[in-house]
UniProtKB/TrEMBL annotation:
Annotated positions binding pyridoxal 5'-phosphate: 96-97, 129, 214-217, 272
Catalytic activity: N(2)-acetyl-L-ornithine + 2-oxoglutarate = N-acetyl-L-glutamate 5-semialdehyde + L-glutamate
Family from the record: Belongs to the class-III pyridoxal-phosphate-dependent aminotransferase family. ArgD subfamily.
Protein name, per record: Acetylornithine aminotransferase
Note: May also have succinyldiaminopimelate aminotransferase activity, thus carrying out the corresponding step in lysine biosynthesis.
Organism: Parasedimentitalea huanghaiensis
GO cellular component, one term: cytoplasm
Compartmental location: Cytoplasm
Keyword hit for RNA-binding: no
Quaternary structure (record): Homodimer.
Keyword Plastid: no
Residues bearing PTM N6-(pyridoxal phosphate)lysine: 243
Top-level taxonomy: Bacteria, Pseudomonadati, Pseudomonadota, Alphaproteobacteria, Rhodobacterales
Length: 391
């Protein structure tokens, strides 16, 4: 008999009933150090007082009105995003993959309105992940995500990650945009070097096409800047945001320049829930924290500390780990042992990590993790590695 929940997930036998900061409490009372943060979602950790306050205050007043009316919380969040980023405008979604849908539509509509209807192709890269909608899986293009689900959507050209000549050669009169994660998350914490992001920006400018960045996982303070592309000194035309922006409340956004968004006039796109008062009240509270320069300084300081200690861990367990990769608090441990075994050994030692492609385990802790949490993280990862060595 099929499980009452559609069995599309491989779930660990863990039942968390409460969260506090960087810690999750299992139904049996055990405390787990959470270095996964719900896959980079709980940016301010669990039950952050400011987020609890924002959500409960809003819940007592108004949950939902629809986008038929003004939503002051949505306006406030859009204003904050516009103030702190390249963007002139924002559309709110409930998830990352919905942001992908709009990013693709927006890029194509831009050229349609300019009389270049043939420009529909979006260039994407192997190992990428843009969510599980039809456009999301067609953009990523991997067999793992698309096989058995009928025809993938046309209009995506899949390129080799890191092959800049391949990008140059792929740009034609049909190209609308390049879509890329500055740091691949699901793909195994693979960062696009700053120089390559600059090259992609230059190629887009040269050919008059749009640069779409997917910062769903790497954005919202995760790398120590508000958005990861800032490290490369470039800006996109369109950007997908989700995960951390809601701190655990389902919330996403597409940010864009006025020019890139010019095709999206009244009636061209919409969402029943997107930008609802609850999500946007929480999003405003998240933004107030992550845009504070002192907060980002702390992310960078702790990221440096964690990385340094992880290098030591890799050195101490060369049979289990190969290297540390990533940026800020978006770190990957490339494993020699099987990554799933390392994640499971972490569970045994009450530390949570997240597997990714390329035999990597991801560390995406709450950005609020403390120095003591970092010490605990290393102790537990060290125990997990020792367990694998002695198994
Ligand atoms: C998680 C993720 C998505 C999809 O977000 P959902 O909210 O799961 O739809 C898209 N892109 C990237 C880079 C992600 O990490």
């Amino acid at each position: 008999m099929i499980a009452s929940v559609l069995p599309t997930y491989n779930r660990a036998p863990l039942n968390f009933v409460k969260g506090e900061g960087s810690w999750l409490i299992e139904a049996d009372g055990r405390r787990f150090l959470d270095l996964g943060a719900g896959i980079a979602v709980n940016a301010l950790g669990h039950a952050h007082p400011a987020l609890v306050q924002a959500l409960t205050d809003q819940a007592q007043n108004l949950w939902h009105v629809s986008n038929l009316y003004q939503i002051p919380q949505q306006q406030a969040l859009a204003d904050k995003l516009v103030e702190h980023t390249f963007a002139d405008t924002a559309f709110f979604t409930n998830s990352g993959t919905e942001a992908c849908e709009l990013a693709v539509k927006m890029a194509r509509k831009y050229f349609y309105d300019k009389g270049q209807e043939q420009r529909v192709e979006i260039l994407t890269f192997d190992g990428s992940f843009h969510g599980r909608s039809a456009a999301g899986i067609s953009a990523a293009g991997s067999e793992k995500m698309t096989k058995g689900f009928g025809p993938v959507l046309p209009g995506f050209v899949h390129l080799t990650f890191g092959d800049m000549d391949g990008v140059t050669n792929a740009i034609t009169d049909s190209t609308a945009a390049i879509l890329i994660e500055p740091i691949q998350g699901e793909g195994g914490i693979r960062a696009v070097p700053d120089a390559e992001l600059k090259t992609l920006r230059a190629l887009c400018d040269e050919h008059g096409i749009l640069l779409i960045l997917d910062e769903v996982q790497c954005g919202v303070g995760r790398t120590g800047k508000l958005f990861a592309h800032e490290w490369a000194g470039i800006t996109p035309d369109i950007m997908m945001v989700a995960k951390g922006i809601g701190g655990g409340f389902p919330l996403g956004a597409v940010l864009a320049t006025e020019d890139a968004a010019s095709g999206m006039t009244a009636g061209t796109h919409g969402s029943t829930y997107g930008g609802n008062p609850l999500g946007c009240a929480v999003g405003c509270a998240v933004m107030d924290h992550v845009t504070d320069p002192a907060f980002l300084d702390e992310v960078n300081r702790k990221a440096g500390l964690l990385r340094q200690k992880l290098e030591g861990l890799v050195g101490a367990h060369p049979e289990v780990f190969e290297s540390v990769r990533g940026s800020g608090l978006m770190l990957g441990l490339k494993c020699k042992a099987t990554n799933i075994d390392v994640v499971n050994a972490g569970y045994d030692n009450q530390v949570i990590t997240v597997p990714a492609a390329d035999n990597v385990i991801r560390l995406l802790p709450p950005l609020t993790l403390s120095d003591d949490d970092i010490t605990q993280a290393l102790n537990r990862l060290d125990q997990a590695a020792t367990q694998i060595e002695t198994a």
